[in-house]
Amino acid sequence: MKRELILTSEPINEASLIARRTMSGGMGAVVNFLGVVRGSEDGKTISAIKYEAFDKMVRHQFHLLFDEMEKRWPIESVRLVHRVGVVKVNEPSLWVEIVAPHRGEAFAACQWLIDGMKRIVPIWKKPVA
């Protein structure tokens, strides 16, 4: 399974990421997820979220998730981009792409990966008023 993991303070350029996609002829599904910053957190209006991450540990935890995902589904590739630093409301903070033979596998793997990320990956967020 091909893997790409990017932690960046730069804005996520979804069009550029999609343009760089590669996949074999046997793949029939591509699932993309784009997570954006909402305008409220815990019922309070915010202007942004500041994301902080311990880079080495984040990479380790993501690769553990990728290893497990590879065991569960016949995924050809996974690409994940997560912003760090200040991300304004309505800006993307997370982009995920899963390439698989069938849509069911791709959707299931994508949801499982995002749920796992929220559970074990040490990325902290702090609302900015």
What does this structure look like?
With 129 residues, the chain is of the alpha+beta class. It has one domain (2-128): Aldehyde Oxidoreductase, domain 3 (Alpha-Beta Complex). 33% of the residues lie in helices and 40% in strands. It contains 3 helices and 9 strands, in the order βαββββαβββαβ. The strands form 3 sheets. A 4-stranded mixed sheet has the order 1-6-8-2, covered by helices on one side. A 3-stranded antiparallel sheet has the order 7-5-9. Strands 3-4 form a two-stranded antiparallel sheet. α2 (55-72) runs antiparallel to α3. It is globular and about 45 Å long. The model has no long low-confidence stretch (mean pLDDT 98).
> Any idea of the CATH class?
Alpha Beta
Rg measurement, Å: 15 Å
Mean pLDDT: 98
Largest sheet: 4 strands, mixed
Question: Count of DSSP helices?
Answer: 3
What share of residues are in beta strands? 35-45%
The CATH H-level superfamily is Molybdopterin biosynthesis MoaE subunit
H/E topology pattern:
EHEEEEHEEEHE
Short description:
This protein is α+β, with helices and mostly antiparallel strands. It has helices spanning 14-19, 55-72, 103-120, and strands spanning 2-8, 29-36, 40-41, 44-45, 48-53, 77-83, 85-88, 92-100, 123-128.
Sum up the structure in keywords:
single chain, 4-stranded mixed beta sheet, 3-stranded antiparallel beta sheet, 33% helix
How would the blueprint of this fold be written?
Layout: E1 2-8, H1 14-19, E2 29-36, E3 40-41, E4 44-45, E5 48-53, H2 55-72, E6 77-83, E7 85-88, E8 92-100, H3 103-120, E9 123-128
Helix pairs in contact: 2-3
